[in-house]
Amino acid sequence: MKHKSLVSINDYTKEEQLRILELAQEFEKNPVQRIMEDYVVASLFFEPSTRTRLSFESAASRLGAKIVGFSEASNTSVKKGESLRDTILTVANYSDLIVMRNPIEGSARFASEISSVPIINAGDGANQHPTQTLLDLYSIQKTQGTLDNLHVALVGDLKYGRTVHSLVIALCNFNTTFHLVSPVELKLPRSVKMHIKEKNLAYHQYTELEDVLPKSDVLYMTRIQKERFSDPLEYEKIKNSYIFHADMLPDTKENFRVMHPLPRVNEIHTSVDKSPKAYYFEQALNGVFVRQALMTLILGIK
Ligand code: CP
């Protein structure tokens, strides 16, 4: 993985993904080490973020790295008309690794093709969010004791949700049975379903959340991605399609866990938060350890 960009989850093999999860376990036991002191990480966020940006920066800080970058492009030279190409070529001169979120699909791939330092895709439009997937895999493995042969329900905006796209592709390596719950307008794109079909795995599509609860090991709730809709009325019509409440918990298995990449809007009622089956905040914490593992492997420190 040394010097290898991570743009799409498939850029890394199953074995490489499992190596990251294994190393993340070590960082979870010992997250503060000075092993990145000689490195500068650039954190370029052209789109809003709380968890991804701050967990990358926390991960790097706890390993002693210096961080440069921005959390909005409006106070950079992009505002003066600088291209993404020139921004990347410049920042690559100042850093050893670039973490980038950008609203344009394919922007991270483009950056990886011109950059002299590795690029980590922190989300490119509605396309992919591979580091979220690594922490999702880590969270599933930790709560279920395995990644193999699970029933995973993905609920909400399966069309625009980039975390869903990357996660489905990754789970295809683990004989997953997929339960896909969405409004008809927001079904999983054909290009992602192709990955499931190529592996001859089962997927079932639903419009009702209640239908999947008794059979699922993991419920992966997602936000309807308001910012990807061109018609605000369309969003208003379906924005509260699925809300998971605490009174739905008795219908679930012992090992059932509720996950969500966050931020949530209304998809999980706060009454669920105290349940031992609610895992979304621990899931977000796992992002620190997984990103420590990823960065140190890419930099060749581990
Ligand atoms: N999960 C996730 O990407 O959250 P942020 O948008 O807050 O980074």
Written account of the structure:
The chain is built from 9 helices and 9 strands. The model has no long low-confidence stretch (mean pLDDT 97). It folds into 2 domains: 9-128 and 287-298, Aspartate/ornithine carbamoyltransferase (Rossmann fold, 3-Layer(aba) Sandwich); 130-284, Rossmann fold, CATH 3.40.50. Helix 6 links the parallel strand 5 (151-155) and strand 6. With 302 residues, it is an alpha/beta fold. Bound molecules: phosphoric acid mono(formamide)ester (CP). Residues 49-52, 123, 132, 261-263 line the site of phosphoric acid mono(formamide)ester (CP).
Describe the main β-sheet briefly: 5 strands, parallel
The structure class reads alpha/beta
Number of domains: 2
Q: Indicate the CATH architecture of the largest domain.
A: 3-Layer(aba) Sandwich
The N- to C-terminal Cα distance equals 10 Å
CATH topology of the largest domain: Rossmann fold
* CATH level 4 superfamily of the largest domain: Aspartate/ornithine carbamoyltransferase
Shape: globular
Helix content: 25-40%
List keywords for this structure.
9 helices, alpha/beta, binds phosphoric acid mono(formamide)ester, 302 residues, four-stranded parallel β-sheet, Rossmann fold
What is this entry, summarized?
The protein contains nine helices and nine strands.
List the SSEs and their pairings.
Elements: H1 14-29, E1 40-45, H2 51-62, E2 66-70, H3 84-92, E3 97-102, H4 107-114, E4 119-124, H5 130-144, E5 151-155, H6 162-171, E6 177-181, H7 190-198, E7 203-206, E8 218-221, H8 232-238, E9 257-259, H9 280-298
Parallel strand pairs: 1-2, 1-3, 3-4, 5-6, 5-8, 6-7, 8-9
Helix pairs in contact: 1-5, 1-9, 2-9, 3-4, 5-6, 5-9
The structure holds phosphoric acid mono(formamide)ester.
Phosphoric acid mono(formamide)ester is lined by residues 49-52, 123, 132, 261-263.
